[in-house]
Every structure is written in C-alpha cells, then in structure tokens.
Amino acid sequence: MRYVTITDVSPEDVLERAKRFFEEHSGLRVEEETESSLTFVGEIGLARFAVDREGGHTNVHVETDRVVGLDVTDLAKRFLYTLRGH
User: Fold this and answer.
1) Model's pTM, two decimal places?
2) Which CATH number fits domain 2-82: 3.20.20.70, 3.90.1150.10, 3.40.640.10, 3.30.310.80?
3) Of 24, 46, 63, 76, which has the fewest Cβ atoms less than 10 A away?
C-alpha cells in the first residue's frame, strides 16, 4: 500500500517521530536509514518512509508490503494521522 500526506513538521522531525512511534508500537526495527528515508522491518511487515520539503511543507511518502489489516499498514496509517494539524 502507498500513502502520502503533507505536514508542517520538518522532514528530520518526521523521521525521528517515526522511529519513536514504531519503537513504542511495534516489533519493527530500522533496517535502513538515510537523511531522507527510513525502512522498518519485522514479523508484521515492511514500511518505507521517505520525506522531502516542498513549498514550505513536508511531503511524507509511505509504502508497506501488506494490505490493510492488523499489521504494518495499520501502524503506518496511525503514524500519519499523528502528523495532521502540525
């Protein structure tokens, strides 16, 4: 599944928040990290986050390897909702 959202949170802060969120809410671990992306993996699936700054906003792109269900996709969507209103 693929998702995109726009936020006022800086790209760096989005990635730090993603690390904290997935550490607290899942058994996923960071498999790969760059200055603009994070890849999490674990028993419940894989999630890739990529961020970029455009027009004063941060674009957050998420791709998971599962469809919606009690897995990484639901957690990724829950995380994106935490960025709204910021």
Assistant:
1) 0.88
2) 3.30.310.80
3) 24
Domain ranges of the chain: 2-82
**For residue range 57-83, what is the model confidence (pLDDT) as tens digits?**
999 999 999 876 668 888 999 999 999
Q: Measured between alpha carbons, how far is residue 69 from residues 36, 58, 72, 76, 86 in Å?
A: 27, 27, 8, 11, 27
Query: What are the phi and psi torsion angles at 70 (to 5°)?
Result: -80, 75
